[in-house]
Structures are given as structure tokens and as C-alpha cells.
Design a protein that fits this description.
- The chain contains 8 helices and no strands.
- With about 170 residues, it is mainly α.
- Helix 3 runs antiparallel to helix 4 and helix 3 packs antiparallel against helix 8.
């Protein structure tokens, strides 16, 4: 249940971060770098994703089974870095691990049901942390900008940038 409501469960996080943020020039630089890397990773993954239709094993899906979550984890760490609050970073990591962990377990069960080859893919590819070169099998899928648009990733990228910008403005406000 938590996994399906993950977007709504994260809505208070940026508001709390904006209220408590005390960024510095250094935290802004590192934070924006993490937000950018996470957003680009998500964009790459969204260009391959054929939700519930095809088991994709190419691109970022050759590195991790849940690349959208990996990208969002980088974005969330970027936001937390932008705040300049280390305790907030630790709390956000724990909160996101709970929310995304539940979501990934739910998705794993669904994917095992939908795709007979998923178990073999699961044995070859790590869940969320890219662990270097491994035997990834034969890649299946290709990147397409229309798929990025169809998956609505532009909305997530706009949200990621808006939160990062508002956190950055706390340096001068």
C-alpha cells in the first residue's frame, strides 16, 4: 500500500526542507550536481520504459532493475544536500528507503508475474545500486524520446528543478 502512494507521501518532504534549509555555496554546488545526475539518469530510464508491456534489459536497466528509483534517490540526496542539514539528509535517506523499498518489492512481485524471464534478469542485475560490470545477458529495448514524453518524465524533471531552485533561493532569502 505504501508503495502505490509514494508520490503523495513525499509531498511534505520538500516543504519541510524549504522551511529548514540553510544552504551554502558549497552545498548548492554538490546538491545541484546530484539533482542533475539523478534527473539525467531518470530521463535515460524513462526513454526505455515500456510499463507492463515489455521486459526492458538495455540501457540503465542493464545496470539496475529499478533505475527510476536510483535516479530519484540521487535527486533526493541532492535536495538534502542543498538544505545544508546533515540530520535532514539522514532522515530523508531512511524515509525514502522505506517508501521506495515497499514500492520496489511490490513491483518485483508484479514483474515476476508478468514476465517469465524476470527471475533470470533478477539474478543478473542488482536491484538499485549499480555494481560495475556484471554479466547482464542480452539487452532488450531501445531509447526513444517519444517514450520519455509518453512516460511523463518532463513533469518529474520540472518538479525536481523547482524544488532545487526554491531550496537554492533560501541562500538569499
Amino acid at each position: 500500500m505504501i508503495g502505490r502512494k509514494r508520490s503523495r507521501l513525499f509531498l511534505p518532504v520538500p516543504l519541510l526542507m524549504m522551511a529548514l534549509a540553510e544552504p551554502s555555496i558549497t552545498t548548492l554546488g554538490y546538491g545541484w550536481l546530484l539533482v542533475l545526475l539523478g534527473s539525467l539518469w531518470r530521463l535515460w530510464a524513462a526513454g526505455y520504459l515500456m510499463k507492463n508491456a515489455v521486459l526492458i534489459t538495455a540501457g540503465p536497466y542493464a545496470w539496475v532493475r529499478h533505475p527510476l528509483y536510483f535516479g530519484m534517490a540521487l535527486v533526493l540526496l541532492g535536495w538534502a544536500t542543498l538544505t545544508g542539514w546533515s540530520w535532514l539528509t539522514a532522515g530523508l535517506v531512511l524515509y525514502s528507503a522505506l517508501i521506495y523499498g515497499c514500492a520496489m518489492l511490490t513491483e518485483e512481485r508484479r514483474l515476476l508475474f508478468l514476465f517469465p524471464d524476470y527471475e533470470a534478469y533478477r539474478q543478473r542485475v542488482p536491484m538499485i545500486v549499480p555494481l560495475g560490470w556484471r554479466n547482464r545477458g542480452e539487452p532488450h529495448g531501445h531509447f526513444d524520446w517519444r517514450t520519455v514524453a509518453r512516460n511523463g518524465e518532463w513533469r518529474i524533471m520540472m518538479w525536481n528543478a523547482a524544488v532545487a531552485l526554491l531550496l537554492s533561493l533560501r541562500l538569499v532569502v
